[in-house]
Amino acid sequence: MLIDLNADLGEGFGIWRLGDDAALLDLVTSANVACGFHAGDPLTIRRTCAAAVDRGVLIGAQVSYRDLAGFGRREMDVDPEELCAEVLYQLSAVDGIARAMGGRVSYVKPHGALYNRICRDPEQAEAVVAAVADHDETLPLLTLPGSVVHGIAANEGLTTVNEAFADRAYTPEGTLVPRRSPGAVLHDPREVAARAVRMATAGTVTAVDGSEVAVDARSICVHGDTPDAVLLARAVRDGLVSAGVTLKAFA
Question: Which helix (H) or strand (E) segment is 80 a member of?
């Protein structure tokens, strides 16, 4: 059993720091680096990419809507051509910095509202896929199982990779419970680790109504901005290893 463990990193901005990137980079196999539109700035991106390269952690571009004030978690209606250009801009910027640090962007993971939007909106999904294809059609796209973006990406020759979330609650439909809902984010390390192990070994997760939902994930995410994210990531990593799962990046 092979599982990639990823986290959202580089989400500070200027003098403000969010999360413990250095500690998380010692635990994960892939780093979703904020590209400056929901968080991050050139210096933060450079430092995060350099630290990931030093540890042999793969770098992903975490593209988002242009929404610093809302941390990229607010739904936006962006013209498809504009969205394509903005995703291409973010991806190209982080890839350029990563290459200067001795690495490269190895995959793309949309963030927040954009991530959820392309699960159900073909037009927005097509814009994101077009941007990735314009930059490098060999880059995989990380997304939820069952997303509409899977078929759109396949039509353009792009690879998609299924992702699950250890620290998020699920609906019976296999989507994430909205963050504003009670219990949407999980904080108990033992619970989060147990869910991750079940995702990796059984391919299922228990939804909020008690039903079992198939996830079939190759990568599992722990959010870097969650309080005690390092404790959660360490618990997940230890739990997976104890269950006989090999931690290996998908890209």
Answer: helix 80-100
Question: Using CA atoms, how far apart are residues 61 and 90, in angstroms rounded to an integer?
Answer: 8
- Tens digit of pLDDT for each residue in 103-120? 999 999 999 999 999 999
- Domain range holding 101? 2-247
- 107/32 Cα distance (integer angstroms): 9
Overall number of domains in the chain: 1
CA 24 to chain centre: 14
Low-confidence ranges of the chain (pLDDT < 50): none
Rounded to whole angstroms, the Cα distance separating 162 from 241 reads 20
Residue 167: give its domain's CATH number: 3.20.20.370
DSSP codes of every residue in 36-78 = SSSS--HHHHHHHHHHHHHHT-EEEEE---S-TTTTT-S----
One-letter amino acid of 169: A
pLDDT computed for residue 251 by the predictor: 78
